[in-house]
From TrEMBL, chain A:
SUPFAM superfamilies: Glu-tRNAGln amidotransferase C subunit. It comes from Methanosarcina spelaei. It is an enzyme of class 6 (ligase). InterPro entries: Asp/Glu-ADT_sf_sub_c, GatC. It holds the Pfam family GatC. One of its GO terms (molecular function) is ATP binding. NCBIfam families: gatC (TIGR00135). This is Aspartyl/glutamyl-tRNA(Asn/Gln) amidotransferase subunit C. The lineage of its organism: Archaea, Methanobacteriati, Methanobacteriota, Stenosarchaea group, Methanomicrobia. GO terms for biological process: glutaminyl-tRNAGln biosynthesis via transamidation; regulation of translational fidelity; translation. Its EC number is 6.3.5.-. Heterotrimer of A, B and C subunits. HAMAP family: GatC.
From TrEMBL, chain B:
Allows the formation of correctly charged Asn-tRNA(Asn) or Gln-tRNA(Gln) through the transamidation of misacylated Asp-tRNA(Asn) or Glu-tRNA(Gln) in organisms which lack either or both of asparaginyl-tRNA or glutaminyl-tRNA synthetases. The reaction takes place in the presence of glutamine and ATP through an activated phospho-Asp-tRNA(Asn) or phospho-Glu-tRNA(Gln). The gene is gatB. It is an enzyme of class 6 (ligase). Its EC number is 6.3.5.-. It catalyses: L-aspartyl-tRNA(Asn) + L-glutamine + ATP + H2O = L-asparaginyl-tRNA(Asn) + L-glutamate + ADP + phosphate + 2 H(+); L-glutamyl-tRNA(Gln) + L-glutamine + ATP + H2O = L-glutaminyl-tRNA(Gln) + L-glutamate + ADP + phosphate + H(+). Heterotrimer of A, B and C subunits. Residues 328-493 form the Asn/Gln amidotransferase domain. Gene3D superfamilies: 1.10.10.410, GatB domain, N-terminal subdomain (1.10.150.380). One of its GO terms (biological process) is translation. This is Aspartyl/glutamyl-tRNA(Asn/Gln) amidotransferase subunit B. GO terms for molecular function: asparaginyl-tRNA synthase (glutamine-hydrolyzing) activity; ATP binding; glutaminyl-tRNA synthase (glutamine-hydrolyzing) activity; transferase activity. HAMAP family: GatB. Belongs to the GatB/GatE family. GatB subfamily. InterPro entries: Asn/Gln-tRNA_amidoTrfase_suB/E, Asn/Gln-tRNA_Trfase_suB/E_cat, Asn/Gln_amidotransferase, Asn/Gln_tRNA_amidoTrase-B-like, GatB, GatB_C_1, GatB_Yqey_C_2, Gln_synth/guanido_kin_cat_dom.
Amino acid sequence: MITKEDVEHIGWLARIEISEQETVEYMEKLNSVLGYFGQLDELPTKDVTPTYHVAEIYNVFRDDVVEECLPQEVVLANTEHKQDGAFRVPKIG
Amino acid sequence: MVYENPDGVRIGLEIHIQLNKLKTKMFCGCSTDYHNAAPNTHTCPVCLGLPGALPVLNKKVVEAAIKVGLALEGEIAEETQFHRKNYFYPDLPKGYQITQYDFPIVSNGKIVIEGEDGEHTVGITRAHMEEDPGKLVHIGSIEKSKGVLIDYNRSGVSLIETVTEPDMRSPKEARRFLDKFRNILEYLDVFDGNLEGAMRVDANVSVHWGTRVEVKNISSHKGVERALLYEIMRQKNVIRRGGKVSQETRHFDEGRGVTLSMRTKEEAEDYRYFREPDLMPMRITDWIPAVKETLPELPDAKRTRFIEQYGITDMHAKSLTSKIMLADFYEGVCAKGVDPKIAATWTADVFLGELNYRDLAISSYDGEKIGFIHAKDPRIKNSIKVSDMVELVNLFAEGKISDRAAVEVIRTMLDTAEEKTPSQIIEEKGLFKAEDDLVTKAVAETIAENEAAVQDYLGGTEKSLNFLVGQVMKKTKGTADAKTARDLIIKELKG
Ligand SMILES: [Zn+2]
């Protein structure tokens, strides 16, 4: 069961501000989602190896060959917050 | 002799090294050659974390990790894969770092170091592959920061994080571990330790087998010893005053040489690791024999071979193999048919000693010359040719120059950028051995001609010795070494 505290913690981890009312709302919704997935727990999977990829593909590599990078102005094109070729953000912590 | 470890010190290390010898980053084709580049000029949608971009693993990263694992005598996982470590920080554009979690590529390795009481084994818990975040620059000082500038040129560069067991018992052992580890990595040719930010270290340390404290942000392998010495002293003081060492993370302030408590977050770290769905798992067992083939002779093996092949002392062999480039240079010199023992003395004792004295670090060897660069100011650099060292060793071996003259030649070669051979330097400075004979002759004459001063000196008047030295200097027109003259006079008069 997801508690109100869990929702607050998840909100903090995601850096999303959640109001008191929303906390209750999300708690109910998340519990409903968990309950739905909980049905899977009823299946006997003791001897089944977990599947992390549907395709059984291993060892996908690329060679160590340099490719062209994006020009600086393109990299910074989507932000107004820039200074001396860098992204500028508020002080952290 | 067994080391008692009186303070019950236990130190473990977490070392991040950049695979900076690779041409491209871990998951994209961006060049890793960004050290002198303008910000955000070595990036692409993958390392900027733009939506829809897909990472593809650089094969050389896995190869390097296998090499490191083999060199550390660790186990290489049959199957290994990546995880996402989720957290928000501006240096991490995706909101997660691609790293390894419960299936690291390497586990259970070891490095044997020269410990407090002889050979000491430090266990390697694990080594795994992960990507480097970008670089943050605070505007103004960290405390009074007005904002932060982000440069993603470093974002996505390949790292290997190595975690040791808490097996080191003193700061000195920690530094020796790092020196040896760095040396091994340079032998493997996966790492250039001279580049800024190439090696970053976090340490955990406890005294009297007590609570562990993490010390973060040790940026140089030289800083490790200082950071740990301070932290051990701090913990001992806390206990002496009857307090308790609290479990916490501290930050090393390199400028002040102290560790400072970091504000602890209310929330415990919660990275919500999960498997990285964008990258396929790896099965690498079949690959290992081929990588093993490419493994070079490692420091310990080379040291043993040097002793056998060149008949040199263990001290010299150890010192010569402490850097792959120095070992190669020495072998280059020996290949020219010089006396390997004399070459070892001049390379390991004098050349290396003079480099250390000048804070110069060996940075290259191309088969013809060995290059070195100032540890703090990369604009100061120079090199010495194999042929120059060969000539010097031969001149010395043939008795044509004194050891003092040979030292002078090495110093001159280090301090001047002009390309001069040892013979030229000796010629210019008048360092040929004939000079020593000249000094001996001048000493004999001085003693014969200054009966009174000699008697005064023998009678206990030290000042008279200075007078006699002055006379020798005069006779040799100042070309004699004052100390040599002094020693010779004392030897003549007092035996
Ligand atoms: Zn990129």
